[in-house]
Description:
Blueprint: E1 20-39, E2 45-65, E3 72-75, H1 88-100, E4 105-111, H2 122-137, H3 143-153, H4 157-161, E5 166-170, E6 174-177, E7 184-190, H5 199-210, E8 233-234, H6 237-243, H7 245-256, E9 261-264, E10 271-275, H8 278-290, E11 296-302, E12 310-312, H9 316-328
Parallel strand pairs: 1-8, 3-4
Antiparallel strand pairs: 1-2, 1-12, 2-4, 2-5, 5-6, 7-10, 7-11, 9-10
Helix pairs in contact: 1-2, 1-3, 2-3, 5-6, 6-7
Amino acid sequence: MQAGPADGARGPxxxxxxxxxxxxxxxxxxxxxxxxxxxxxxxYHELATLMVPLDLADEVVVRATPGRKGxxxxxxxxxxxxxxxxxxxxRAAEAFRRRFGVADRVDLTVEKRVPVTAGLGGGSSDAAAVxxxxxxxxxxxxxxxxxxxxxxxxxxxxxxxxxxxxxxxGRGEELAxxxxxxxxxxxxxxxxxxxxxRAGDAYRWLxxxxxxxxERVAAPRTDRAGFTHGKAQNDLQGPCFQxxxxxxxxxxxxxxxxxxxxxxxxxxxSVFGVFRDRSAAQRAAARTREAGARDVEVHxxxxxxxxxxxxxxxxxxxxxxxxxxxxxxxx
Length: 331
């Protein structure tokens, strides 16, 4: 018998009678604005951040199989170190199962394209993609329950469950739609593990800079007016650039190649520049690659107005079969 829903869930979910497989694109994000306020009683900082999804995305396949109890399996082809229960996608599936009383087996396959531990929200986006797919499979319309499950996994997950570009407050759970025009960005991700920054370290460094003034910092406000590049700001950037001047050099390089502004995304270490149009962004990316920046991953990306949806998964084999049938027809 299917397990009952956790406290707060709205009734039992439908019982599966056959395996269902869905796919979802899990977009990266950048923080166009990140203002950090005082530390909250729960240990998190009060935030006001403007986030926007990108066309750089992972792909997540979610399979739910009836009658096989108590197991979530997660694999990341080519990245075995990301397999297993500690992956945020797997943790999201477990949170969903607990909250909505699902006992079916869930298998996850994550095709990674978004750099890991980069300040781009890749893991949180994967988690949200899993929640959106499972909500579709089990016909869950309890948005508050999904947001609560997402917050169990990470502060950025509610954003990826939202409609698209948004201001986020609190831990990230208070969302308000934002007006962001289409933007063309060059994204630089340094692969050198010495430049990796844990989010906890970035916030601690900011508190050290603020010193005794930290307790007087006011809660930041959101700006509901439309975004312009002059409003780009990241409170975590200064302390991170001070400890890793190589990141400052990457931002300066983007400005030197024509970016209107260049800042760090989230807690880094990725930095991005906002360019006039796609052609300007492509030229800057080409010059960066020609400069021999071998330890830097370069992406030309654009912002999205909305998060991608969920669709039926079709195996590559079936697609190949259809293609073969088409090619065998007489012309």
